[in-house]
């Protein structure tokens, strides 16, 4: 039997596709071409993660105080401005500012689109289908990232700056998708206290302090992701140094993304 989901779910898939249309995923190579050293490139990546850590809680509060669409809209605006700065920048600090805005855009959408899609399933009483929706969402993310890496790989040695022009255009498509979405009307308890940044931080601290297993898993993931991320980004530098062809770069990225998609579908 065909399952009929609210239209917001499919618009959420479209928004996610545009948001993760990572045509700028080979940014390490791009920054090298702009004259930045590997140390400066590493600092840009560090700035991104520090900014993302700082923005994580406040960005979630914004979605609670205003609306999901508010956060998603400004997330795309930040992404577009970040891409413009990457095109216009000629100094390390402007590139660093671009990474701060990129982190902000990531935080404004991180978790927000998931929450919006979940709330969209509440009224039609389809919340049990949410794990399947999230699984599909992750496949959309991997498909988007795979498709654009192929394009970016071929542009490495031919007008590489076009990747950021494309990122701006895709950001506009993301904005249009947000405007077409309908904010789900989910009744909230009157007695439920409003969450503040302070209360969220205290609750997170107590949870991590009391839940040893969760704490261990988070530390493991942080270390594992740190190693994988460092390898992924600096491998781009290796490919550029060894003059890999655009086709070979695209092929390697496609194989990597294909394995990710298989892993997602096999995950319970």
Automatic annotation (TrEMBL):
Q: Where are the transmembrane segments?
A: 12-31, 38-57, 77-101, 133-156, 162-181, 216-235, 247-266
Positions in coiled-coil regions: none
Q: What is its main location?
A: membrane
| An annotated Gene Ontology molecular function | transmembrane transporter activity
What Pfam families does its record include? Answer: MFS_1 (PF07690)
- Membrane topology per record: Multi-pass membrane protein
Where does this one sit in the cell?
Answer: Cell membrane
User: Which controlled-vocabulary keywords does the entry list?
Assistant: Membrane, Transmembrane, Transmembrane helix
Gene Ontology cellular-component terms listed: plasma membrane
Its recorded name reads Major facilitator superfamily transporter
């Amino acid at each position: 039997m065909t399952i009929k989901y609210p239209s917001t779910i499919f618009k959420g898939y479209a928004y996610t596709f545009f948001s993760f249309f990572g045509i700028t995923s080979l940014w390490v190579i791009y920054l090298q071409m702009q004259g930045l050293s590997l140390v400066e490139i590493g600092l840009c990546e560090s700035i991104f993660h520090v900014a993302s850590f700082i923005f994580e809680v406040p960005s979630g509060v914004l979605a609670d105080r205003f609306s999901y669409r508010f956060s998603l809209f400004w997330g795309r605006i930040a992404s577009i401005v970040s891409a413009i700065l990457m095109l216009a920048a000629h100094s390390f600090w402007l590139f660093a500012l671009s990474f701060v805005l990129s982190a902000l855009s990531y935080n404004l959408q991180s978790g927000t689109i998931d929450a919006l899609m979940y709330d969209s399933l509440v009224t039609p009483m389809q919340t049990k289908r949410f794990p399947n929706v999230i699984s599909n969402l992750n496949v959309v993310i991997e498909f988007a990232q795979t498709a654009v890496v192929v394009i970016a790989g071929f542009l490495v040695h031919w007008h590489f700056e076009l990747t950021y022009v494309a990122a701006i255009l895709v950001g506009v498509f993301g904005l249009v998708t947000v405007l077409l979405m309908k904010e789900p009307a989910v009744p909230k308890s009157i007695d439920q206290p409003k969450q503040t940044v302070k209360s969220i931080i205290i609750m997170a601290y107590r949870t991590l302090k009391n839940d040893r297993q969760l704490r261990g898993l988070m530390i493991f993931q942080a270390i594992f992701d740190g190693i994988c991320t460092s390898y992924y980004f600096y491998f781009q530098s290796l490919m550029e140094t060894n003059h890999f062809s655009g086709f070979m770069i695209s092929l390697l990225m496609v194989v990597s993304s294909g394995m990710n998609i298989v892993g997602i579908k096999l995950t319970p």
